[in-house]
Amino acid sequence: MTGFSASAAGAGKLPEALPDIDWLDTDEIRLRQTSYWDASSLTARALARPTTTEEVADVLRIASSTGQPVFTHGGRTTCVDAVRTGAGDIILSLERMNRILEIDPVEGIAVVEAGVVLQTLQEAVAQAGMFLPLDLGARGTCTIGGNVATNAGGVNVLRYGMMRNLVLGMEAVLPTGEVISSMNRMLKNNSGFDLKQLFIGTEGLLGVVTKIVLRLEPDVGARDVAMLALEDFDAVLKLQADAKRTLAARLLSFEVMWGAYYDAVTADGGHRPPLPREAPFYVLVETVAAEAGGGETLLSLLERNLEGGIIADGVVAGSERERSDFWRVRDDFERILAEPPVYLYDVSLPLRSMEAYVGEVEKAFRDAFPDGALHVFGHICDGNLHLFLAPGTAGSDTPGTRRTADEAVYTALSRFEGAISAEHGIGREKKEWLPISRSPEEIALMRRLKRTLDPANILNRGLVFDV
Amino acid sequence: MTGFSASAAGAGKLPEALPDIDWLDTDEIRLRQTSYWDASSLTARALARPTTTEEVADVLRIASSTGQPVFTHGGRTTCVDAVRTGAGDIILSLERMNRILEIDPVEGIAVVEAGVVLQTLQEAVAQAGMFLPLDLGARGTCTIGGNVATNAGGVNVLRYGMMRNLVLGMEAVLPTGEVISSMNRMLKNNSGFDLKQLFIGTEGLLGVVTKIVLRLEPDVGARDVAMLALEDFDAVLKLQADAKRTLAARLLSFEVMWGAYYDAVTADGGHRPPLPREAPFYVLVETVAAEAGGGETLLSLLERNLEGGIIADGVVAGSERERSDFWRVRDDFERILAEPPVYLYDVSLPLRSMEAYVGEVEKAFRDAFPDGALHVFGHICDGNLHLFLAPGTAGSDTPGTRRTADEAVYTALSRFEGAISAEHGIGREKKEWLPISRSPEEIALMRRLKRTLDPANILNRGLVFDV
Known about the structure:
Chain A is an alpha+beta fold.
């Protein structure tokens, strides 16, 4: 424990109680933008930047004993309003716990502190001749700890699974200050309960993740990428089934963009379109190039499906530069966000229901906002769609506008038994809608776990559900 | 709730309290062998064979309110003494909840009751043109519910992960009788805590799994299998690294047998050896045959490593019959068990420590039992070794003999920071050794979870740890 003054802690004044920790005060905190999606200034009583697990434990132990609310911050890329704080809150930022402790290519593991930025780790792992399977648009700012807390998905889930599948070991601090060190390095370990599951995907409600052991894969080497245009969703479904079956795990990504999305990001002043605009669907498919025989397998898939009339048009990237240009069309949706408000949704549902679902959302939304725009892309092999709803000139950013958008998305979803969040989580933004995807018994069990691990309810209070 | 008599329940007489459930009495129970590894008769007060989740809930609700210990039984293939019961216990067997409720090849899911036998499901899934990734030696008797409760591994983990990675949704009954239905069918769902993780790999301590949604994969089609002989462990490590990198997910299994194991199962009267005996190591490697180009990739791996001197000798299966003969050498270890006692261990540890570890175990064991035998095989790419220790003529099955074997295995393991169970779990057999792999804080947190979900401590009492 670092220098601890009991009387100061008693008054809930954590910075005074723990003077050895690096703290930011209210004015310094105000210089920070709340999140990527929310430009307003952060507000909080104080922000701790611990450099050790012991410092994290000290903050939580005192906060628990005094009932002081604490919010954990990683890269603040949340899409679900999970990092906003109030004037009385303490922020625990992991930004200074950002060391890569070990990369071991032989055993295929990386050991990192939670504050490491995803892209930083991706690059370090690549330098060691290995591959970190996690990849997503926010790579430049999101942190591994945040990726764990939200069970991040992204563009390689099809092949490697979500973050939960990549985490071998973990160290976390319970809200009451106990350090749970489960820094397992083995691919298989059934020696007692797999406690790390309590912290993965629970949005920071049950503890603060401080260190992580990640599994690495052999370097995938060169990749082949194609951009394809398709005439209808049935063709998209047929192509993904063929790709999954014949390419198997050589298939790294299969991203589908609805035509309106592609057209918007490639409109004048936007990205150069790799294929002519105004097709109903675009698919970005990426494969691991084979050791011998190069990209033949992707090419034979494309040839077969062009001949069969499934693919209407297509182009294969001829260079790393072109590959990265193709991906920018998918990743870089700044133009979609140019005219706020734009509401972002992240749902999953059965493949066979996707087309009908998007049609229903579109109809309901356009009934309310005739000049609104609906933009959709997704990792459809994962059952995952991302929707951007923009009411256009008809709607300003009011609770009523958002409500109409929410209802368009979730009313249809509940009919198709979909999930209200595939990979972004619940945060504050979706908590009202949680009962669409989870039963009262499930929510009661979540509450029971929260009360067991965080009896004073100090950690990320009010996210996901109310205790 | 089925017909419930409060007074009978008050006396702990569950069969009388729930007469609508199918019960076996003490005499009928005695006809059952405890487990595959333990030929003694089962003993229990009564055995319930519920056919619905509601019946399971009724048993648990009454048991919780009266403090009646209940043990859940699936296929009783446990290797860790997890199904033995006492005269006062109630057994809850899922054997009659064995329906396959749905197989949907388009969405790639199967929905089953927990009592379905693994092989039965494998065959039904294959009939639907799909592939169930889980496979292990006990396939003919183990149940899906048991596979979930133990987070089963097996021969395809390298490519598909353990059971935890295959379970999309689940219905389970808490020890207090609440039904938690999380029958998610989506590959991705971050809508609140992933509660199924509480039941996967927790050896039945936190609830009874009743229904499961499993993810299926496209049919892998033909497979290529080779049996290889290698001169030293360094060659085994080099071959597995090459195979993982170049075959990637085309690699289905990579099984290593130490020479003594291979020699024992292929000795006179045993299986026909696909390769000459007395090599130091044998590798059984199985790949998914490519769509186009057949088995060329496995063949080129083999050619490259034969030329490079890594592989000393090898043979590729020329028919499905040969393939199955090769696998029998790996799977069918009856000859190893022929002269009891034989103690079975299941550990995981870093790849680079395996050879030294096996050497240390062998030395320690032979110091105690000079004519003892140590047989080893494993899924080494998963870091997983299975060890059979037979003291030979020097040891009868006494606590002292077992203790000596345990100490040989675990003393060395703790130095290499290995896990005492890679895939079999802890049960009663390994619980004394749990502190080798898990810290006091971790065990305290496991206890806290158990007390929260099972306050009367009725379910699988005494397995894994004491509450």
